Amino acid sequence: MSSAQHLLLTALRCDIDNLRHLATTSEIVGDISRFIHVLQRERGASTIYLASRGKRFKTRRMSYVQHSQEAETLMRQRLEALSQEARPQATARLLRRIATVWLALDDLDTLRRAIDTFAISPDAATQAFNHLISGLLAIVFEAADTSADLDVTRALVAIFHLMQGKELAGQERACGAFGFTHGHFDNAHRELLNKLVHDQQRCFDTFVEFATPEAQRSWHQTLSQRTLAGINQLRDIACQRTQHQTAIGDTLGETWYELTTLRIDSIKEVEDTLNSQLAALCHRKIATAQSDLEQLKAEPSQHVPAPCEQLLALSATQPLGDLTANALTSPLGRSLIELTHAHSSRLQGLSDELENTRKALRERKLIERAKGLIMAHQAMTEEEAYQFLRKTSMDQSKSMADMAQSILDLSAMLQRKEEKHMR
Q1: Which residues contact 91 (CB under 8 A, 6 or more apart)?
Q2: I want to staple 64 with a disulfide (CB 3.0 to 4.6 A). Which of 19, 42, 117, 360 is the partner?
Q3: What is the C-alpha separation between 12 and 8, in angstroms, rounded?
Q4: pLDDT exceeds cutoff 90 at 119
Q5: How far apart are CA 409 and CA 419, in angstroms?
Q6: Which residue has the higher pLDDT, 23 or 352?
Q7: Kind and range of the H or E element at 263?
Q8: Dihedral of the CA atoms 155, 158, 160, 164 (nearest 10)?
Q9: Mind listing the domains of the chain with CATH numbers?
């Protein structure tokens, strides 16, 4: 066997090792997904328990605590096995993320005791759960960011954004549960609720962009329109700017919790579908690489190129322009970018802030133009037009800016048809 063939064998073995690491990572992501889901339930139940001073959700909360402890044990076992590898395949950054979360997990029992004794406020307890779940999601992000396989990276990016969107939906559940159980929403909680609705929609839009067609079908089929309608109705009640706060009965806290839980459980079904697809993808790639390895070992002569074939092939493998472009996504390119980023993070932050401001201004202009059309054609006040646009965007699972753009596009199309008809 020639030196080139030995190198090919080594390359295939490296591919298999990397794919096995990705398969292990996908299993860790699955464990984290399950743990986050039960933590989210525990957080929502703890919020109602604290807001009602122990009158509601006492038994249910204890049940959720037990589920969280069981899921945590399974996840710790997986992470412990990763840390005990002789040469861990995980990157140093991923291992550091895991170590940080590991330390935070040790404080979880302290948080639960504080909730038991009402030594912590509902908002403070929610924030503590939020920080832990954010750390767990950072592990998933790190796994996606360090993946070297394009297909696996896309799958991980889709999973990460779905999990992040579901976490924001869980925070919305906790925020709404507090307000409805407490009997009213102050301005801070009302604004938080609106922000969570907007932010989670952005995550779900990104998920749909990277998800497979099968996952997209699951997304559209699993979510109940009836449940979404009920949630939107309660969102309107929570966000109405009225001084008659007594109109919100505290029993709505449980109704809100049940409806948002149905939605979050549906999102979890889609999440499980993605995790299964990711595991299957990794194992398919491992099987293909293993087959190529065995074939090369069994028939090395079949891989000997004809004279000059390799010289000709080198010039056609990849144009120099593509090499330059792809260097940005290579491990070396990413290392150089990270080094540069370390020296210009402040400038980048300012640039991002400027771009976000420009985007917000563009979206605000779209919304204002759409409001004007609605006011003109539907004889609505400005506030009524805003609420109509907001409710329509929620019903159609669109951002307000996207809904406004759709209204403007439709108006322009109808105007062109009317002008054509008049001619």
Answers
A1: 142, 146
A2: 42
A3: 6
A4: yes
A5: 16
A6: 23
A7: helix 252-298
A8: -160
A9: 3-285 (no CATH), 356-422 (1.10.10.10)
